[in-house]
């Protein structure tokens, strides 16, 4: 009720449910980061669909028939009383703690581990994407970078050269990086999946889930100050949300409860929708402000132009 008074408008059940799901997903990401750091006995559910279903059922029960005071009163009476102590409620079983990501203290050891990841992925056959690849595409750039860009997956040019973002979209990304005051070798660039999906289709959820542990370890080793998520697939892989990129872009999120993430449009989308480049430039300016990075020119009109 307090929120309705502040905003002057009521929240629909659908928008409230979407917001609740997103908050649940971000909370889960934070808790997963905690157990990766060695935490124990984290009592939370990993079944987001069940959480969403319970939230929807709760909203349906408590809303009551619109304009029907009797129905609303009945819904209020049906609400269970809160437990008076923690012993009154059943406690969920603690989650089994997975092995934390081992991040070496020395720069050289971290570089060697990143090279080992590249070798491991080159021999990976855990999902069907390996069947048609020419080679895996792991990363390019500075393994000690403050700024990381994450895309969806390799395309034809990337599959041939073994490097991410080397085609037309990659050329635009490099111009975007230059407009921010960086050189391409100053930042770190990777993808959610390491193998090219057939016909450049979007990776399937199972393929993303299979490949994402490699990226989690890469990000732990690089330890950037900011991540830029390029497109909906990158956002989904990093944050576990299915909220659309148009809604999320330009708003800060957190990767594993720790690293700031700026969602924005993928360069390939900008090649088709050039009018969206201004919005991406606004997003990148937020990144520069957080990193205290001054661009070569303060004139937004000199933002990178497409082909």
Any overview of this molecule?
The protein is an alpha/beta fold. The protein has twelve helices and six strands. Strands 1-3-2-4-6-5 form a six-stranded mixed β-sheet, sandwiched between helices. Strand 5 and strand 6 form a beta hairpin. The protein is globular and about 40 Å long. The termini are far apart. The N terminus is likely disordered.
Give me a quick take on this structure.
The chain is α/β, with parallel strands linked by helices and 307 residues long.
CATH superfamily of the largest domain: Uracil-DNA glycosylase-like domain
CATH class of the largest domain: Alpha Beta
Content of β-strand: 5-15%
If you compute it from the alpha carbons, what radius of gyration comes out, rounded to the nearest whole angstrom? 22 Å
Distance between the terminal alpha carbons, to the nearest Å? 50 Å
Poorly predicted parts: 1-11, 33-47, 58-99, 299-303
Q: Helical residue percent?
A: 40-55%
Give me the count of strands.
6
Classification by helices and strands: alpha/beta
Q: Please state the average pLDDT score.
A: 79
Shape: globular
Taken together, the total number of domains comes to 2
How do the SSEs run, as a string of H and E?
A: HHHHHEEHHEHEHHEEHH
How many helices in DSSP terms?
Answer: 12
List keywords for this structure.
disordered N terminus; six-stranded mixed sheet; alpha/beta; single chain; globular; 2 domains; Uracil-DNA Glycosylase, subunit E
């Amino acid at each position: 009720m307090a929120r309705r008074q502040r905003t002057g408008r009521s929240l629909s059940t659908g928008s409230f449910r979407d917001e609740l799901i997103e908050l649940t997903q971000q909370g889960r990401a934070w808790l997963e980061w905690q157990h990766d750091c060695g935490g124990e006995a984290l009592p939370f559910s990993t079944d987001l669909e069940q959480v969403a279903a319970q939230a929807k059922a709760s909203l349906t029960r408590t809303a009551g028939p619109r304009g029907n005071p009797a129905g609303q009163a009945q819904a209020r009476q049906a609400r269970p009383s809160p437990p008076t102590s923690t012993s009154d409620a059943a406690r969920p079983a603690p989650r089994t703690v997975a092995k934390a990501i081992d991040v070496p203290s020395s720069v050289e050891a971290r570089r060697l581990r990143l090279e080992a990841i590249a070798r491991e992925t080159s021999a990976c056959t855990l999902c069907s994407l390996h069947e048609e690849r020419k080679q895996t595409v792991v990363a390019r750039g500075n393994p000690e970078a403050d700024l990381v860009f994450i895309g969806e997956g390799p395309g034809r040019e990337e599959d041939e050269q073994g490097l991410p973002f080397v085609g037309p979209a990659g050329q635009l990304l490099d111009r975007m990086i230059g407009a921010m005051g960086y050189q391409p070798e100053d930042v770190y660039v990777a993808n959610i999946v390491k193998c090219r999906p057939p016909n450049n289709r979007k990776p399937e959820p199972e393929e993303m889930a299979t490949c994402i542990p490699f990226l989690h370890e890469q990000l732990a080793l690089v330890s950037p100050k900011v991540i830029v998520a390029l497109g909906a697939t990158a956002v989904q892989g990093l944050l576990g949300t299915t909220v659309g990129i148009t809604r999320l872009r330009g708003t800060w999120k957190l990767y594993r409860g720790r690293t700031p993430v700026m969602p924005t449009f993928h360069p390939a989308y900008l090649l088709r929708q050039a009018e969206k480049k201004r919005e991406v430039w606004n997003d990148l300016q937020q990144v520069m402000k957080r990193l205290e990075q001054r661009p070569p020119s303060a004139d937004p009109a000199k933002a990178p132009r497409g082909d």
